Amino acid sequence: MTYVFRRLDITWFDVHIALRPLEVPESQAVQEACRFLVRGKEYGERYASQTATETPHFRIRPLSPRELGWGHFWKSYSQTWWRNGKPDYWKLQLPFLCKLRQPIRLDRKAAGLPPDAVHACVVPEVFLSALGWSVNIKVQLSGRIEINALIAFLDRLRDPKCRAFIVDGRNRSLPEAQESISQMLVDDVYADVYVQQNGLAGILMVHRHMVVSVTDFEGPRQPYRSTWRDQSGSDEMNAGDRALMQSILHMRPVSVEEAAKQQIAHTPFDHANFAISNFDHGTLLFMQDMAKRDVAEKSQRSLHCLDRNVCRFSMMILMWMRFYGATEDRTEPKLRTLRGFAPRTLKELSETYINSVCQTFFRNHKGLRKVAFGATVHPMANNTGQPLQKNPPETPAD
Which segments of 38-165 does DSSP mark as H helices, in order? Predict the structure, then answer.
């Protein structure tokens, strides 16, 4: 089938775990203005007072009460640790949002985008906590882009020689852009002696993940698999179309034969709406009923909300999982204390946040289950392999 995308949100994020600042005296690891990051009481006080910190490259601030209450994920996540009638910010490791002072642009020619048919906007964000940080780069595409052209665009960005992102006046590849932003953060937040001795090489990094959300398209409405065929009134996608969906997810052409062998977690929603995930790469959200051109503007906003929620969920579970694994044999008190928060945080999240995509992660991701439940089998799993809740796509909270 022919799909033409009118609007898409594509977010890449990585995860960096920084253990050293929690091991050594604060003066040896963290700049004075940012030492609240490794002090539990001050961490909470900064959040409670909504105090921002200015650095040469960033404005570092807590997530606002509106952000914590408006997004479904942050609202549910905040409920996993509660103290004196409000979130326990330190135990939650609710991250601070770091807004980059300089813009990032996409070099359309280097990225291989059509000269006039597609508009691209780049939105960088960094999330910082005592556990480490995550660099998020979102590219919002709008215009008219056929599915094969989208796959070619994503495949091109995979090439380390494709320096399509302009950061600090220089063209950089996607990995280089994220590394450049990370270096700015390290220079601003961590002490000179720590940076000189360790730099980025002394920090555990998780390879980048991606979340793609289609928010406007033209084409047929078909479920990925026939789980909801009786409600959608249409047949499932054929093998070729499923391979195209996986090609978007993997950022490269995937053949029908290869697609049939891939480990893909499928999350069906109502009718033809679905998500597919590969835990090593990311998630594709294709809410077809809400992304058609004739739907209400409110549905479009809901798609953006769902996209943000899945991005933040994926980022936080990876942060906790990697920190938990990296500190297994460590004896330093702060590391042991924070590590002890991980199982309850993730277990409680599985109960408070019923987003279907995220429940698919809890059901099928062995590493996540091991941290959250102490076992590779979800305690509520059945034999269907389907999510715990079959919910319609989320809508923004008032």
Answer: 40-49, 65-70, 72-78, 89-92, 108-111, 147-158
Cβ atoms of residues 82 and 128 within 8 Å: no
Mean pLDDT, 10 residues at a time, the chain of 398 residues: 89 92 85 94 96 97 92 92 89 97 94 86 96 96 94 94 96 95 92 64 71 93 73 76 96 96 92 93 93 64 91 96 93 94 96 94 95 69 39 39
Token pair of 216, please? Answer: 């406007």
Per-residue pLDDT, 110? 95
- Residue for token digits 């004896």? 331
* Cα–Cα distance, 397 to 301 (Å, whole number): 11
Rg for the chain, CA atoms, rounded: 21
DSSP-assigned letters across all residues of 301-336: HHHHHHHHHHHHHHHHHHHHHHHHHHTTT---HHHH
Strands 82-83 and 105-106: unpaired
Residue-level pLDDT at 233: 54
Beta strands 4-17 and 132-146: pairing type?
A: antiparallel
Give residue for tokens 């330190």: 90
User: What does the block give as tokens for 90?
Assistant: 């330190």
**Contact between residue 266 and residue 237 where contact means Cβ atoms under 8 Å apart:** no
Dihedral Cα 217, 218, 223, 228, nearest 10 deg: 90
- Contact (Cβ atoms closer than 8 angstroms) between residue 104 and residue 73: no
Q: Give the 3-state secondary structure percentages of the chain, helix then strand then coil, rounded to 5.
A: 45, 25, 30
What 8-state DSSP symbol labels residue 199? Answer: G
Taking the C-alpha atoms of residue 79 and residue 345, their distance in angstroms, rounded to an integer, is 9
Q: What is the pLDDT of residue 334?
A: 92
What integer pLDDT is reported at residue 69 of this predicted model? 85
Pairwise CA distance, residues 257 & 206, whole Å: 29
Buried b (16+ CB within 10 A) or exposed e, 129-166: bbbbbbbbbbbbbbeebebebbbbbbbbbeeeebbbbb
Dist CA 160 CA 137 (whole Å): 16
